[in-house]
Amino acid sequence: MLTDKLKLLIRQSYKAIGENLSNFNPRKQQTFLIAEIAKTLAGEYSKDRKIITIEAGTGTGKSLAYSLGAIPLALASDKKVCISTATVALQEQLVDKDLPFLKKYAGLKFDFALVKGRQRYVCRQKLTQAVATDSPQAGFTFAEKPQASDIRTLNAMHKALTDGSWHGDIDSWKSPIPHHIWSQVQSDKHSCLKTLSEHHHCPFHKARETMEQAHVLVVNHSLLLADLELGGGRILSTPDETFYIIDEAHHLPKVTRDHSSASVTLRGAIDWLTKLRETGDKMAKLIKSQRAISPALKLSDDCQDLLIEMQKVLTFVDSNAKTYFIDNSATDNSNNFKNNDEKVYRFDNGIIPQVLKNWAEDCNELSKKSLSHLNKLYNALIEAVKDGDCQMYLAEPVLSEAGFMMQRLENLQSLWYMYAKTDSDKAAPMARWIQLQDPAKASARQDYLLCASPIEVGFTLEDKLWSQCEGAVLCSATLLALNSFDNFRFQAGLRNDDGSQYQQVTSPFDYQNNAQLVVAKMTNEPSAIQFTDELIEKLPKYLQQGSASLVLFSSYWQMEKVAQALREKNKLDIAVQGEHSRQHIIENHKKNCDNNKTSIIFGTQSFSEGLDLPGNYLNNLIITKLPFSVPTSPVEQAQAEYITAKGGNPFMSLSVPDTSKKLVQACGRLLRNEKDEGVITLMDKRVVTKRYGKQLLDSLPPFERVIEK
After folding, report:
1. What is the DSSP letter of 179?
2. For the residues of 42-89, what is the DSSP string, one character each?
3. Could you give the CA distance from residue 430 to residue 414 in angstroms, rounded to a whole number?
């Protein structure tokens, strides 16, 4: 329960923030949020289910609200707060602006840290070895001889790390580091050797020490899921000692699904598996102990058996390739479709041929055993180094090689586990598919990518997070779909009858007086071939409604064709997404607006979320087409297939709710502050001609509406 002392502390902190924040106006929505979050996490609604889901409209100040609602309570109960976001932009805002301000003025004594995955940090030992001209590791580290520019980059990184001018994370390096360079010197769990002298100065472990002292951790959704997959508490604080703040929570289900998937190239895996036995032999020779003989022999035997089974799978797919992939572009089959020039075959209802399932079971078991043998050899070699039976400079390259192999084996075993798994009749099946990979070079061999992914992940989140954590706050500006939490609740594994709380907090903005929603009179629907020509004809009129315009399209092709026509015919100066970087477009747009020049941006879906153009930087938003997305990915197709099999309607169950959220996000670009004004124009007649159109319009904020006739 919230004590009177805690309530007083929160009120005093909020007052102190207001006194030190310029143009601060106390908002009833914000104070309501703080109270609801604090009461939920304190167990006033449910002692067993301290979870609240909040849709907080733009301008409610949710980051301050969840910070003040959670941090004082965490400090008082000796818990940690873990704030998880989907975007780097929000992480930077929290770490560089919001949390420092709160710490300075709120009267709360707490430390915070930005926590990144291990692979965002350089391995000091690997970097030291890479720049050593006589390094025994050089031959293994780089598959091909490094270029002169690569060597200069490595030397500059090493110098900066040594003199303390660089902290060792890829994000703070002054320029982009090529992937082929970074992948060779990044930290990874398998080659992290605590016995090395360089370990005491390891950037990753220094960051972890900072994390352990911090009361508030800022992470991304992927790192949160990586920790939960390991059981929780391996990377971050333990769930039962943590209050989780899931900001941008509408991204969490998809990130969870992506994180739970696996893929393997057949020929590629066979290639590296043939080298795995050599790795085991190298380790056994260095260990020089009887205890290395058994795991080395078992690794060799199981690896050989695994190669035989993998070859059977490759032969099977090769022999069925014509059935799976021929005439892709000429067929209109739900399984065989061409997508971005990549040929994909999806197994109906996730059901694979029985012979393939049998091989998958064998491959799963053999890869699991091989991983166990390799782990034993790895640990034995580390012990040999500690005991002085093997010199470090000899062991280190072999340990690094084994580390790469262990990562690959883990992924291989995960893929075969999902192929071998028998799906439950009571739950959605796995999505399983094969992707034909055309060789990049004429001399290269054609390969096949085997993929698997869960369709629904709510049970994963319930099992690993909601049922384990001390408390959780899920928030976003767009969680409702068609004015209901049902869609998100199902995706995230939450229920309405388990003690979890739900709140919709409207924005303090005066939508009725500050913004107008115009539904343009259009002759054609977006599916008509004449629609693009109608856009070209009518857009100039709507672009005159404001001096700072953002026009959102659903396809690059249409955007580019319209831009070209308006540039040639109407002599309009248009900044088009893709022609320059996003940052360049925004900076140039703001410069034009500051100089009272008319400025127009054309963008696609990615410009409808996370784009902040307050004040006179945006007063005219035009949405050319409702943001429906066609289920082209195998996972989306499998999900639609599953809903149809259960007697549902995928369009109404998936597409319309998803479009509702995207439309709210797009319209949210216009008003960013309480004094902002402008016009939103929808150029898709379906919002007034289709049955679902009214639902979509009613899910939007209460703008003044104008339906052109």
Report:
1. H
2. TTSS-SS--EEEEEE-TTS-HHHHHHHHHHHHHHHHT-EEEEEES-HH
3. 13
* pLDDT at residue 196, as a whole number: 59
pLDDT of the residue at 342: 53
- Domain chopping of the chain, boundaries: 4-111+214-257+458-505, 118-208, 261-454, 511-707
Fold exhibited by the domain 511-707: Rossmann fold (3.40.50)
State both tokens at 321.
């390739």
The owner of tokens 């059981």 is 231
User: Which residues of the chain are under the pLDDT cut of 70?
Assistant: 133-146, 190-200, 326-342, 439-444
* C-beta separation of 123 from 192 below 8 A: yes
CATH topology (fold) of 4-111+214-257+458-505: Rossmann fold (3.40.50)
Helix H or strand E segment including 259: helix 252-259
Q: How far is CA 309 from CA 419, 433, 449, in A?
A: 14, 19, 16
Give the per-residue pLDDT at 199.
61
Phi first, then psi, for residue 341 (nearest 5°) are 65, 15
Distance CA 534, CA 581 (A): 29
Residue 619 CA to residue 53 CA, distance in Å, equals 31
- pLDDT at position 138 is 43
Instruction: Give yes or no on whether 4-111+214-257+458-505 and 511-707 have one common fold.
Output: yes
Please report the pLDDT score of residue 144 as a whole number. Answer: 53
| pLDDT value of residue 175 | 85
